[in-house]
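User: Hello! I'm new to structural biology and keep hearing that structure can be predicted from sequence alone. Could you demonstrate with DUF1648 domain-containing protein? Please show me the input and the output so I can see what each looks like.

Assistant: Of course. The first part below is the input, the amino acid sequence of DUF1648 domain-containing protein. The second part is the output, the predicted structure written as tokens.
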Amino acid sequence: MNHATRRPATDSTLRLMTALPFVLALAMYGAALAVWWDRLPDPVATHFSAGGGGRADGWTGLTAFAAIGASLLVATGAGWTALVRRRVLWGAWATAGFTGTLLVLLLRDNLDAADATGVVSPLANLALAAGTAGLAALAGWALSRLVPEETHTDAPAPESYDRLPLGPSEVAGWSRDAGSGTLTALGAAFVLAGLVSLFLGPWPLALLLLVVGVPGLALARMRVTVDRRGLTVAPVLTARPRIRVPLDDVAAATVRDVDPVSDFGGWGYRVRAHRTGLVLRSGEALVVRREGGREFAVTVDDAKTAAALLNTLAARGEGV
């Protein structure tokens, strides 16, 4: 069985490349504020009616808007830097490009306005921000080529845990919630910022925050279940998306301590050359070796009981 390992230098390079576009966007936003501050109204128009030709229908104090915009870039950048992997570096660049461009365009729309109630933000701003995001995504994709692929070393397969002493007619199941305080906090922060932006900020910004925050919050806490259907991992709050490993695909189950960064390159749902994992924290993880040789790992407490029960049910061939 192959284990993927990431060199510390590779981690540092990837995280630096992930943070870079947000630093550039923050610098661009800060420069625009510094140069245009005396030419901006207070409050500034920050919310516009889609059905009213883009005319302003919401306003925010200039100082508050400056702080909200900077906080958004910092929080989004921190989230991407913590969770990024090589294949989606382009996504971090696209996010920074879209958000930074939209913030600067909003300032430009307010420039030299005597009264912010008459400010108009054209729909073309979204197209321009999307175009910038596309170019930034290409830059991120090109830079990802500079990050080495994970290296792989051969290691012996782990031994299975002892099976539970179940009789031929006995039925058993196991279930435990697994969550991440960090991902929960980040998801809640994005949702809160999105709700605030619905009233104080531009609606495209609110939509972006909610699109990131709501799924992130929903997937920050999962329920891990072992029963006659096999291993099932699903969000606590919703029925989908769901990961299932049926009993007839279980070759062996064991437990291993997992480090999110060194073993999987970050948190969340991770895909590697010979394994996948739902990594919500460091520490104990249930690891299932499938019949095809691939592994699936999920970080959860009391993984030893889950592994023993899964081995027992798989050996009895109770799949449905």
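User: So the tokens describe the shape?

Assistant: Right, they're a compact way of writing down the 3D structure. Reading them back into a model, for example: Confidence is low (pLDDT under 50) at residues 1-9, 151-160.
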